[in-house]
Write a structure and sequence with these properties.
Low-confidence stretches of chain B: none
Order of helices and strands of chain B: HHHHEHEHHHHHHHHH
Largest sheet of chain A: none
Number of strands of chain A: 0
Helix content of chain B: over 70%
CATH class of chain A: Mainly Alpha
Helix content of chain A: over 70%
Shape of chain A: globular
Oligomer: heterodimer
Largest interface: A-B, 45 and 47 residues
Order of helices and strands of chain A: HHHHHHHHHHHHHH
CATH topology of chain B: ABC transporter involved in vitamin B12 uptake, BtuC
Mean pLDDT of chain B: 88
Mean pLDDT of chain A: 89
Strand order of the largest sheet of chain B: 1-2
Structural class of chain A: mainly alpha
CATH class of chain B: Mainly Alpha
Largest sheet of chain B: 2 strands, antiparallel
CATH topology of chain A: ABC transporter involved in vitamin B12 uptake, BtuC
Number of domains of chain B: 1
Chain lengths: 379, 305
């Protein structure tokens, strides 16, 4: 299959002449220009629409966007806050993007995050009580969180593969079930009774928390997210596995005819996706909250869907987009206080952006400037 | 023991009558949309926005029925956006559904902030159990006029699908867009209208949540009912009457937790709360591979492929 990969990939063949190579490069640049220009255009349109929305309410859009820049990226503190929030967004966006590459609309990241986070907080209880060395304990917690997350999204993938159950609906249902499972334990048998305020599991304690990246106030989750995004990008674009995934995503029947194990590839993509979201849950518990409780249900999984779509399901592009949305989320509090807007303002902006972005899909292939002769109808 | 079994049973039946209405409206709306060959996964957002609009209008006008109408209109607007956008080439109706779900929920939370505190006039109800003379039964079997409206809508829809020209056009569009085009029917228009009307029905279902049961507006009002209703349509195999039955079944599943709690069984409350989701999932698994479902599915539908 490695032989098969060579002639079909868009890379220039070693035998191609220099001029061919140049024209190939220009095709690639033009195509990627389209993939950057249209999402940027969609962002601009949603910013304009959202400004009109604010104007209709008598609020100043200029102030709104200033506050986003100030509250998300303006100071060293706000920038670190932004990066802190973009870590789970990178991971939950990967949880959408990987299944999307094989043609699935999987939106169960929130459930895998919550359940993965809960599982790592639960396994931490015996580890902390048994005085296991922190490094080892954190590795076990991360592995359990990823495993449970993988299982959770994997169920949707398996149901899709074995029974043809629609993965979008099943993954969202599993999110609700996952949250219910966490509530069941957090308010029941695993509740920390010394904390009367909010039902939580036992705190893992400072000694067991994940540290900060040296010189910053940002936890290691960001580094893990970026690293994972790069690894998954290489996996998808440079390996036989990734090639098989992309073929199956493009045309499942053709892939099957080629003898590719489409079903197993689907399940594998879902397991990877769930592990990413579960890892996000682990970092939320081990780096931010210190325990599992209802704060895990913070909507990162849903914002991650938007991030993945805006990045066109490309793991590398997810990184800057996640940082941008991390900034918007981080600025939410400031906007709420300064402009007297409800906290759902960010939700409206996200929803609007998402709709406009999906509508902009219709623009692909319509502009001559991005087209090279003979490639117009490739999508 | 038998006494508490009786209480639980009555509470479940009462709960089914009470909780099922939003399921019913959303399922009927989705049924209409899917019959025309399109999927609207955004009805969860429609439900929440409908609930908020109904509560706000009822509070300002003093008329809950005006609120119900406003909820329907809000739902119709969201449905119309979905219906218009999906006719554009390369736009994925499932992804748009997710986006509309986030957008509708965001709008509802945004404008609904001001209505969490005040109390709006609610819909009146009447009891199906007065004749028994048993106070408990009478209270449990209170039903809302919207439940009856929903059943009537279902009956009318079933009749219209089978017997009217419009019903035939919608079914034809859903089964084969080329056939509809050949007959001179505008596929986009039919789907646009079906999605808009479906959104209207889902919005009305939302009005029930805020104006009758639970009967107030807050951000946790709907947790997936809209989505479950979408799954329920597959189970009901795109038949309005079966949608009603399925909605009652879902209402009953949702009522198990509170019913057991009313007799003091609180163990596993969260698991019983999750019962409707688990039931939905099992129903989806069971109906996914069934030949009957394959026979009844509208041919143009992307959700079952």
């Amino acid at each position: 299959m490695a032989n098969l990969a060579e002639p079909l990939s868009s890379n220039a063949l070693p035998t191609a002449s220099a001029s061919q190579w140049r024209s190939d490069l220009s095709i690639r640049i033009r195509r990627s220009a389209e993939y950057i220009a249209i999402p940027l255009f969609a962002l601009a349109v949603s910013a304009v629409l959202f400004s009109l929305f604010l104007l209709a309410l008598g609020k100043s859009p200029v102030q709104f966007f200033q506050l986003i820049i100030q509250g998300g990226f303006g100071t060293a503190f706000s920038l670190q806050n932004t990066l802190q929030r973009s870590a789970p967004l990178i991971l939950t966006a990967l949880a959408v993007a990987i299944p999307a590459r094989i043609g699935l609309v999987m939106i169960g990241g929130e459930g895998a995050l919550v359940l993965g986070g809960f599982a790592s907080a639960a396994i931490a209880i015996p580890l902390v009580l048994g005085k296991v060395p922190p490094m080892l304990a954190l590795m076990i917690m991360a592995a359990i969180g990823m495993g449970v997350g993988a299982l959770w999204v994997g169920i949707s993938g398996f149901l899709r593969y074995s029974r043809g159950v629609n993965e979008t609906i099943s993954s969202l249902l599993l999110t609700y079930i996952g949250i219910a499972i966490m509530n069941f334990f957090v308010e029941g048998s695993l509740r920390d009774l010394t904390n009367p305020n909010k039902p939580s599991t036992m705190p893992i304690g400072d000694a067991y928390m994940v540290g900060k990246i040296p010189g910053t106030d940002v936890h290691w989750g960001l580094a893990a997210g970026i690293l994972l995004a790069i690894v998954l990008h290489i996996l998808l674009s440079r390996t036989t596995f990734g090639f098989a995934v992309r073929i199956s995503g493009g045309n499942a029947r053709a892939a099957q005819a080629q003898g590719l194990p489409v079903g197993r590839l689907i399940v594998a993509c879902c397991l990877i996706a769930g592990a990413c979201a579960g890892l996000a849950g682990f970092f939320e518990v081990a780096a931010i909250q210190g325990r599992a409780n209802a704060s895990l249900v913070a909507g990162y999984g849903f914002t991650g869907i938007l991030v993945a779509f805006l990045a066109r399901q490309n793991p590398i592009a997810i990184i800057p987009v996640a940082i941008m949305f991390g900034g918007i989320v981080a600025a939410g509090g400031l906007i709420q206080r300064r402009m007297d807007l409800p906290d759902a303002t960010v939700l409206v902006l996200q929803g609007l952006t998402f709709v406009v972005l999906l509508v902009s899909e219709t623009l692909y292939g319509r502009f001559k400037i991005f087209q090279v002769s003979g490639t117009a109808d490739r999508t | 023991m038998s006494d508490s079994t009786f209480i639980v049973l009555i509470a479940i039946i009462g709960g089914a009558l009470r909780v099922s209405t939003p399921f019913m409206f959303v399922a009927l709306g989705e049924c209409l949309t899917e019959k025309s060959g399109r999927v609207n996964l955004g009805l969860e957002g429609t439900l929440v926005l409908g609930a908020m609009s109904a509560y706000a209008i009822s509070y300002h006008s003093g008329s809950p029925w005006l609120g119900v109408f406003a909820a329907g209109c809000a739902g119709a607007v969201l449905g119309a956006i979905h219906g218009y956008v999906c006719k554009l080439p390369k736009v994925n109706d499932i992804a748009i559904g997710i986006a509309m779900m986030l957008f509708g929920t965001g709008l509802a939370f945004f404008f609904g902030k001001a209505y969490i505190q005040p109390s709006a006039p609610r819909l009146e109800s009447f009891s199906l159990g007065e004749w028994t003379g048993n106070q408990q039964i009478a209270t449990a079997l209170q039903v809302n006029p919207l439940l009856l409206v929903g059943i009537i809508v279902a009956a009318v829809m079933a009749w219209a699908f089978a017997n009217t020209k419009w019903g035939l056009i919608v079914r034809m569009t859903g089964d084969s867009a080329p056939a509809a085009k050949a007959m001179g029917v505008s596929v986009d228009l039919v789907r646009f209208l079906s999605t808009t009307l479906g959104g209207f029905l889902a919005g009305v279902g939302g009005a029930f949540l805020s104006l009758y049961y639970p009967g107030s507006w807050n951000q946790g009002l709907s947790s997936g009912q809209g989505l479950m209703a979408v799954a329920l349509v597959i189970f009901a195999r795109w038949d309005p009457v079966r949608c009603v039955i399925a909605a009652l079944l879902f209402g009953a599943a949702g009522a198990i937790g509170p019913a057991l709690q009313s007799v003091g069984i609180t163990q596993g409350y969260y698991f019983f709360n999750a019962a409707p989701y688990i039931l939905t999932l099992f129903i989806m698994i069971a109906s996914a591979g069934s030949k009957k479902a394959l026979r009844d599915v509208p041919g143009e539908l992307s959700i079952t492929k």
